[in-house]
């Protein structure tokens, strides 16, 4: 039930609308029906009497004729009052709603559900310095509390949702407005990204849980940034927006200021996969500036000590990575690198970024041989060991007790000895022509790779394709099944690699780009195992064999398995099946295959706000581990069961950026936690973009500098209590009239 009054005045025409509706129209209809009851009773009472004339009645009728008009008026007045009481009582129970800027509407009691979606992501830490609010978040909380102040106690419920990822319902719908204001005051500055889609999904759930609320309003208070509203999952947000428009009246309060901009160090990482002790290592920093270009010095530090090579740069949204090539570490283990770019922006939390890097003083590699020969270089892993750790150059001595100055420490064992080794002691394991692997040992190899290790699989004479296909393949330790062994005739030219130094090369082979005399294009392979790659295989082809066929056989592949990688080489590691070990490129190729497949052991030590810290199961513990945050507060660690039956430790959600400290009893390990880089673009998206992101719905878009932002009266005025007061007044009047018009008035009673 609704009524609309439209008034036009002035030029151009301006429209003022007074709209009325009822929450439960059934009560209004019942009131109208009940209002007919007094009339029916009156008519029935008239039919109960039969007129009988007798002599004495003439004298009585002559006396009553004098007061007939007055009595009839009194009866009609009482009847009308009683009908009005019942009709208005039904209308009061129906709770009529109306809106306007009139004094009547302003004085009415409002009713409904009001959901406040408040952005507390890290971009809301922007220093806008408004009166009474330094940051966007402080101003958002002030606006939200002003909205709550305008609501009617007992008639309107409030819910509060925050958008800092992960979004959460901070306060379930409540009629306690003081509790709502206190909940708003408790909102903390988050340092995570904006989860607009998740927050609006929660608002949709609350709206569907309150279907009887006649007025449901959704108030979004955000800084309207591009990072929040220009999302990759645009279709999902548009779908939610359209669904919300069918539930709520929606308003967005945009806190963005026109000139807001931000400079950010979005990433710091090693340029290569391995950082070695005593060698200069390249570190890359990604610096961006959104909103305007910014010039400042990019300052580097290692383990809290400044590093030379700082550079003045001009940051834009497309600034190329800045390389620091003078980073040299004196010892191995975990080290902290940081890059700082102070350009004078007003969002300072992302001006510095930390990175924990794992520096290798020695990398242990286990070479498992399938063949042990009599001569020094006759075993299947001898050439490989020599390539990984060449003898020290003449005139330069290697480290004490070592014949090589290589950072790689290879160890050769037979396949029989493999079962006696603790695999977690090594960064990489090489199977060099091993005939077959038992199921139990294959399970250990799978766990080793999934925990972040690297497995290199070379073929050889003893290799049994049936064993490999039945044991290694189901565990993901082969990229595909071995099909058949390919060999050339005794005096035929061997197979060649499809190596083109001037063409596109796999990243593992980028060191050979432009090099035309490496021998990779002339090395011959006389025998190799043909491998069938499934159509859905995750394996990357590092190098193929040259052929005229449409699909070449892979010579070297690389594929991930859990946290580690597997490299498959279809021929031998020695000269038994190929001339490659005699080529100049062999040493470089082996090192590149190893370094290109080694997964940096520092990934777990670098986290983003909102993530948890999962401790590697192969980490050594001599006590219950403890994690301490940047402000010396302890972060909870709890044991978690792993899929392979082991248990590991997981932290609670990391809520603040900075350097954390992990104590395992055996060592103290730094943990770097940074703000999400995808929240850094704080350029205003604009009202049109926000409406488009929500599916082009009808939405009230206002700016935060409107002084009465929370006082707009757009719907929700409940006139039920006013109508109830009218009912009570009529009941009182009816009682007084009944006494006044009754038969026991002084001096007026007939005897």
Give an overview in words:
- The protein is an alpha/beta fold and 751 residues long.
- It folds into 5 domains: 1-47 and 68-111 and 717-751, no CATH class; 112-259 and 682-715, Rossmann fold; 262-360, Immunoglobulins (Immunoglobulin-like, Sandwich); 385-426 and 444-597, Rossmann fold; 607-671, Sandwich (Immunoglobulin-like), CATH 2.60.40.
- It is 25% helix and 30% strand.
- It has 16 helices and 40 strands.
- Strands 22-21-23-24-31-30-29 form a 7-stranded mixed sheet, with helices on both faces.
- The longest helix has 27 residues, at 68-94.
- The chain is elongated, with a radius of gyration of 41 Å.
- The two termini are 53 Å apart.
Which structural traits does this protein have?
single chain; Rossmann fold; Immunoglobulin-like; 6-stranded mixed sheet; elongated; disordered N terminus
């Amino acid at each position: 039930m609704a009524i609309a009054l439209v008034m036009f005045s002035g030029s151009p025409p301006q429209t003022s609308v007074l709209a009325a509706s009822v929450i439960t129209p059934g009560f209004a209809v019942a009131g109208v029906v009940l209002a007919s009851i007094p009339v029916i009773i009156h008519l029935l009472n008239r039919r109960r009497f039969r007129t009988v004339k007798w002599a004495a009645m003439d004298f009585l009728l002559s006396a009553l004729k004098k007061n007939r008009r007055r009595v009839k008026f009194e009866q009609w007045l009482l009847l009308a009052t009683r009908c009005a009481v019942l009709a208005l009582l039904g209308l009061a129970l129906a709770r009529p709603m109306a809106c306007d800027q009139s004094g009547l509407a302003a004085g009415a009691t409002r009713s409904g559900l009001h959901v406040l979606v408040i952005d507390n992501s890290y971009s809301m830490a922007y220093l806008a310095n408004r009166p009474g609010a330094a940051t966007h978040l402080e101003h958002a909380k002030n606006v939200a509390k002003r909205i709550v102040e305008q609501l009617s106690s007992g008639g309107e419920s409030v819910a509060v949702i925050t958008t800092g990822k992960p979004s959460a319902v901070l306060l379930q719908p409540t009629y306690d407005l003081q509790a709502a204001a206190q909940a708003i005051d408790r909102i903390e500055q988050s340092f995570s990204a904006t989860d607009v889609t998740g927050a609006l999904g929660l608002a949709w759930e609350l709206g569907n849980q309150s279907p009887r609320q006649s007025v449901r309003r959704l108030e979004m208070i955000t800084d309207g940034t591009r990072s929040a509203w220009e999302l990759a999952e645009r279709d999902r947000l548009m779908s939610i927006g359209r669904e919300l428009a069918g539930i709520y009246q929606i308003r967005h309060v945009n806190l963005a200021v026109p000139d807001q901009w931000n400079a950010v160090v979005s990433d710091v990482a090693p340029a290569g996969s391995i950082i070695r002790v005593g060698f200069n290592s390249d570190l890359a920093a990604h610096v961006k500036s959104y909103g305007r270009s910014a010039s400042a010095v990019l300052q580097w530090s290692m383990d809290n000590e400044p590093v030379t090579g700082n550079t003045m740069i001009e940051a834009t949204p497309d600034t190329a990575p800045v390389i620091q090539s003078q980073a040299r570490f004196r010892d191995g283990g975990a080290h902290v690198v940081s890059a700082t770019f102070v350009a004078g922006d007003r969002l300072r939390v992302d001006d510095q970024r930390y990175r924990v890097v794992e520096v290798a003083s020695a990398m242990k590699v286990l070479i498992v041989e399938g063949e042990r020969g009599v001569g020094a270089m006759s075993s299947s892993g001898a050439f490989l060991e020599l390539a990984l750790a060449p003898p020290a150059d003449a005139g330069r001595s290697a480290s004490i007790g070592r014949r090589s100055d290589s950072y790689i420490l290879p160890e050769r064992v037979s396949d029989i000895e493999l079962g006696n080794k603790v695999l977690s002691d090594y960064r990489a394991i090489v199977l060099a022509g091993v005939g077959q692997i038992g199921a139990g040992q294959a399970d250990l190899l799978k766990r080793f790779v999934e925990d972040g290790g690297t497995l290199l699989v070379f073929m050889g004479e003893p290799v049994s394709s049936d064993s490999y296909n039945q044991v290694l393949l189901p565990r993901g330790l082969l990229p595909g099944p071995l099909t058949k062994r390919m060999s050339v005739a005794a005096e035929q030219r061997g197979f060649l690699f499809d190596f083109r130094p001037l063409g596109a090369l796999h990243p593992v082979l980028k060191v050979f780009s432009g090099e035309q005399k490496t021998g990779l294009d002339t090395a011959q392979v006389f025998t190799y195992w043909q491998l069938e790659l499934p159509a859905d295989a995750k394996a990357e082809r590092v190098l193929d064999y040259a052929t005229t066929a449409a699909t070449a056989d892979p010579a070297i592949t690389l594929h991930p398995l859990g946290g580690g990688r597997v490299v498959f080489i279809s021929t031998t590691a020695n000269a038994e099946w190929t001339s490659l070990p005699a080529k100049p490129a062999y040493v470089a190729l082996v090192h590149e295959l190893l370094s290109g497949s080694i997964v940096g052991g520092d990934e777990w030590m670098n986290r983003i706000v909102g993530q948890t810290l999962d401790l590697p199961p192969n980490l050594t513990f001599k006590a219950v581990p403890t994690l301490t945050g940047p402000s010396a507060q302890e972060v909870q660690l709890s044991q978690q069961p792993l899929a392979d039956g082991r248990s590991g430790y997981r932290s609670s959600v990391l809520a603040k950026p900075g350097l954390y400290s992990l104590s395992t009893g055996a060592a103290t390990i730094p943990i770097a936690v940074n703000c999400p880089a995808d929240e850094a673009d704080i350029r205003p998206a604009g009202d049109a973009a926000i409406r488009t992101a929500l599916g082009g719905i009808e939405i009230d878009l206002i700016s935060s500098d409107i002084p009465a932002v929370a006082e707009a009266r757009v719907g929700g005025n409940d006139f039920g209590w006013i109508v109830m007061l009218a009912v009570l007044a009529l009941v009182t009047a009816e009682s007084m009239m009944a006494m006044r018009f009754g038969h026991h008035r002084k001096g007026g009673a007939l005897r």
